[in-house]
Amino acid sequence: MTVPRQPSSPDQPGAPEPSEREGGKARKTEDRSHMLRRRWLTAIIIVLLIGVPAGYLVISANQSRNSGRDKEDKYSATGLTEGWPSKVQRRLYDVPVQPYSEEVAYYETNNWRTSRLYVQFLTSNAGLKKFLKQIGTTESALKADDITISKRDQKVVGWEFTGPGPWYGLTHEHKDPAPTLDVVVDRSNAQHPMIYVVSTTTP
Questions:
Q1: Spatial separation of the C-alpha atoms in residues 101 and 188, rounded to whole Å
Q2: Is the pTM of this model over 0.70?
Q3: Quick one: CA torsion of 91, 97, 100, 106, rounded to 10 degrees?
Q4: What does the alpha-carbon distance between residue 113 and residue 125 come to, in Å, rounded to a whole number?
């Protein structure tokens, strides 16, 4: 009985390379320059996909940080704190900062005789009307070119009412211990008045 001859194992020395028809895989040696080009292309794609967006994020973060620092420097130089007074402060000093206001900043001083809250905010014409209504007065009480906030109080927070304006002001008094409000309004922007308030309470 004759045993059929088995084909040589491809792992055996001297075994012929299998053809593609026999299930083998054609092997091609990659040219060195082609390999280097391929690697460079891969590296460039990775840099573009990862590096460029990361660069934009860094630039954006730096711009935002610098903007925040500019505002901090601007307000710290005047004593003002950027942001809204607390709800308790707004209630005690009767300063209803209007929703959606911008450029909001405040400063509070206290001593044994008087306490003051300095507040500024940019609002709309509707916001101005609502603010005045909430403190118990109306737009008709505003007087042209009447700077009701004293030079002393202006100096405390670095306010200067010297621009072209027009400027309007009023003083709204209450019986102690309710606060007295000195209000100055800058109407240089016809649609968005800037409101400055000094609320003074006497214990």
A1: 17
A2: no
A3: -100
A4: 35
Sign, CA torsion 143/148/149/152: positive
- Across-strand partners of 198? 118, 182
Structure tokens at 155: 């100096």
Write the CB contacts of 98 (distance below 8 Å, at least 6 apart in sequence).
Answer: 121, 123, 124, 127, 128, 130, 131
Q: Please work out, in degrees rounded to the nearest 5, the angle formed at the alpha carbon of residue 166 by the alpha carbons of 160 and 172.
A: 75
- The token duo for 20 is 């593609």
- Per DSSP, the three-state class of 104 is strand
Chain centre distance of CA 144: 35
What is the dihedral angle through the alpha carbons of 174, 178, 182, 185, rounded to the nearest 10 degrees?
-100
pLDDT digits (tens, 9 = 90+) for 112-160: 889 999 999 999 999 999 999 999 999 999 999 999 999 999 999 999 9
